[in-house]
Prior knowledge:
Helix content: 40-55%
Strand order of the largest sheet: 1-2-3-4-5-6-7-8
Oligomer: single chain
Radius of gyration: 19 Å
Distance between the termini: 64 Å
Low-confidence stretches: 1-20
Largest sheet: 8 strands, parallel, barrel
Number of helices: 13
Shape: globular
Strand content: 15-25%
Amino acid sequence: MPMMKIRRILFTGGLNKGDKMDIERLRKFKQKIKEDFVIGCFSKTSDPAFIEVMGHAGFDFVILDLEHGPNSVQTVQNLIRAAEVSGLLPIVRVKEDTPHIIGEVLDIGAAGIQVPQICNAKQMKEIVNIAKFAPLGERGVCRFVRAADYSIKDRYEYFRQANEALSILQLEGKEALENINSIFNADNVDIFFVGPYDLSQSLGVPGEIRHPAVISAIEEIVEKGKEKGIVIGTFVDTVEDAMFWKDKGIKYLAYSVDVGLFADICMSVKDAIV
């Protein structure tokens, strides 16, 4: 047997060229979110070990946070690697909706982008245009990137599969609520994510994510999403809220933040002993 073929079997489990586990994982994720729901966590750490723990613990995804975290595109690519080896889907929340940053995180292998502060349909369409290759959009083209195996992957297969990356858009303010019907006429958007803390501030009750006005607004988004077959996600930081919104129909649930979970455990252990 030729040495190249032996090496391919050893290092890829016998998969044919181009059969990438990451694209299969992404497709399974999309199927799961249609049939059931998925759970993950925000991450603000720069340590790949935290990401691996999430994957081994059974989370479906991690949101690597460039908006409110200390990471850069350079450091987050190692966190993407950690997610991949532990069976976790790596999603990157970008800090701004520019072609530069969105293209960069997709180039390094993010399985999806999560974009904050979506207010209207025009903004939403511009993001989709930035994130997708033709014919779906006008994303800048380069195949000498990590997502394309640094040019080893067949270029046409890469362009096709790249367009399967998740587009997740955050609805966080009154303007988004006012424009929800036009926003929900979206093409090529996989998930709409409600940011409850920013929404509470926009509604004049900052931080009160259990306020009746906040709950009512999110419920309205969830119900309209159900009518149109749109996946809705949100953030929670208690098990009680997680179960509440899961029962309401949330399918993409981001539970707390890695550093926050670690802080909670540290405090509970200290309180139990001291």
